[in-house]
Amino acid sequence: MVSSLLEIDLDKIKYNTAQVKKICGRQGIKVLGVTKGFSAIPQIVAAMVAGGVDGLADARMENIIKLRNYGFDQEMTLLRIPKLSNVADVVHYTNVSVNSEITVIKALSQAAGKLHSPHQIVLMIDVGDLREGVMAENVLATAKQISRLPGVRLIGLGTNMGCFGGVLPSINNLGLLVELGTCIEKQLGLQIEIISGGATSTLSLVETGIVPAGVNQLRIGEGILLGTDSTNNRKIPWLCDDAFLLRAEVIEFKAKPSVPIGDIGRDAFGNIPQFADEGLRKRAILALGKQDVNIEGITPIDENLKILGASSDHLIVDATDSAANIHVGDAICFRLNYSGILSASQSRYIGKKFYGGNYG
Ligand SMILES: *Cc1c(COP(=O)(O)O)cnc(C)c1O
């Protein structure tokens, strides 16, 4: 028996992928479908492939190995800079990895030699977000070092934004990436085939046609899944925002006071709760808790339902203002944001149900 269900409309995933491909394709930009946001559930990956992604990308080797075992043979990029302890798997299961440490790239070179399997490197450049990447002034020297290593080939430059520092993609920082690529080509005589200009947050520049010429790849997860761009705090108007839905079952429905009765200690997570007295309120308890999903990542579709709180296994919802006639056994539905999907997709307590075409 499954008490909660994550429903996924595969046609909407395919549609969103095709839309992103179309918009990017007009400007010569290829699209990697990023699968880490939903634990690389193969049915969803297949819908992305059906929508026309140019390759797949994930941050986790576990996900990549799973996809290879399912038979996905698309070009595969590892999006998190590799662990020194894991370079053999990276060479074995992926075609490309993003990198920023020469020590790791040397180890990849050795692994590639041992496995007789060449590996491609996208060098990450930190243009200001302060997550991974080589600083601009060190790019040329690092590229030179990589060019001398057997078994690995520097095929591109990439950057990541909006993740740690909240830096937005711009004409300037993407322009710098393109310039650095040109500089490497001229000074070292290497061919830089890929300029990977970020993720969903770069789509707004693609829409307005101001991505610097030369940027020819984006790595898209959130936009395809959710139709949102949280870095720019917007819904993307030309994408569906309802491919995912979470359903949970009501296990208690009663009118109760809004203020607890008795001496107040700590709640299940060590906090001292505060309550405003709003009299008697209709409250639904759902069989869904912090063990199942990041509660901050879900929103009731009925706007008049309000999440009051959650413990490990119970979600408490105020239903006083809702017109819905709620009973024990009913389902209440939620939209999810990125952290909601991330958590729900990997919960073994939440069933997965697929709608639309089967693209496997
Ligand atoms: C997660 C990730 C992406 C995808 O980002 P979205 O905002 O979901 O499109 C792209 N690149 C890297 C390096 C990532 O880690």
Automatic annotation (TrEMBL):
Gene3D superfamilies: Alanine racemase
InterPro entries xref list: Ala_racemase (IPR000821), Ala_racemase_N (IPR001608), PLP-binding_barrel (IPR029066)
Positions of the Alanine racemase N-terminal domain: 8-224
Enzyme class: isomerase
Gene Ontology cellular component terms for the protein in this record: cytosol
Cofactor(s) essential for the protein: pyridoxal 5'-phosphate
GO MF annotation list: alanine racemase activity; ornithine racemase activity; pyridoxal phosphate binding
Pfam families in UniProt: Ala_racemase_N
Alphabetical keyword list: Isomerase, Pyridoxal phosphate
Enzyme Commission code: 5.1.1.12
Domain of life of the source: Bacteria
Classification via PANTHER family: ALANINE RACEMASE, LYSINE RACEMASE
Protein's name in the database: Ornithine racemase
Organism of origin: Sporomusa termitida
Gene from which this protein is expressed: orr
